[in-house]
Every structure is written in structure tokens, then in C-alpha cells.
Design a protein that fits this description.
Layout lengths: L2 H4 L11 H6 L2 E9 L2 E3 L5 E3 L2 H21 L8 E5 L5 E6 L13
Antiparallel strand pairs: 1-2, 1-3, 1-4, 4-5
């Protein structure tokens, strides 16, 4: 059976076979650029696609921004630079864009 014929087929229980879960995983690297400098991600993370990598970066950015706000640290252009396994820059995720800020008015 050709792999293209196998794609999308389920095991009868409504789940995709385990083979498909791992066959198309790609390694993405989340390099961080902050006001303190540049930190290279040397390990990376296996994810199915760039959209999943973007979601992962935004989730991590939200946690980091929350920690920065608690410690009264400035949010000043921090970002993740997502790259593939050969080092090609694929996307930039600004930490501030991962969080929705509401206008706050104090009396």
C-alpha cells in the first residue's frame, strides 16, 4: 500500500495509527532574543508543523511575560525566532503579541 493511500485512514477506533504520529514530526528550534541578549535553543522540539511551533512559542511567551510582569520587568522587544533543523529562520514570535493587553485606567 502506498503511504499516500495510508494517510487519513483510521484504525477503526477513530484514531490515526501511531506511525503517522511520528512519521512527519519535524524539529523546531526556539531561539530567544531579549534585552539581555540572544539565547540559542540547542535541543529543539519535535512538532508536526510550523503552526504547532507557533502555538508552542506563544504559550511559552505568555508564561514568560506573566513572570516578567509579576517581577516588574520591562517588556522590551523580546521574541522567539523559530528555525528548522538546518538553521533556516521560519518565523518570529514577539512575546508581546502573544498576550492581549487591555487598557487600564486608574483614577
Amino acid at each position: 500500500m502506498l503511504l499516500s493511500n495510508f494517510l487519513g485512514k483510521t484504525d477503526g477506533l477513530g484514531t490515526k495509527p501511531l506511525l503517522l504520529s511520528f512519521a512527519f514530526m519535524k524539529r523546531f528550534f526556539f531561539h530567544a532574543r531579549t534585552r539581555l541578549g540572544y539565547v540559542s535553543d540547542l535541543e529543539g522540539q519535535e512538532l508536526p508543523d510550523l503552526k504547532a511551533a507557533e502555538i508552542e512559542a506563544k504559550t511559552a511567551a505568555r508564561e514568560l511575560v506573566a513572570n516578567m510582569l509579576v517581577h516588574d520587568e520591562p517588556l522590551d522587544g523580546e521574541q522567539f525566532e523559530i528555525a528548522d533543523a538546518v538553521g533556516t529562520h521560519l518565523m518570529t514570535v514577539r512575546w508581546a503579541d502573544a498576550v492581549e493587553f487591555e487598557d487600564v485606567y486608574l483614577d
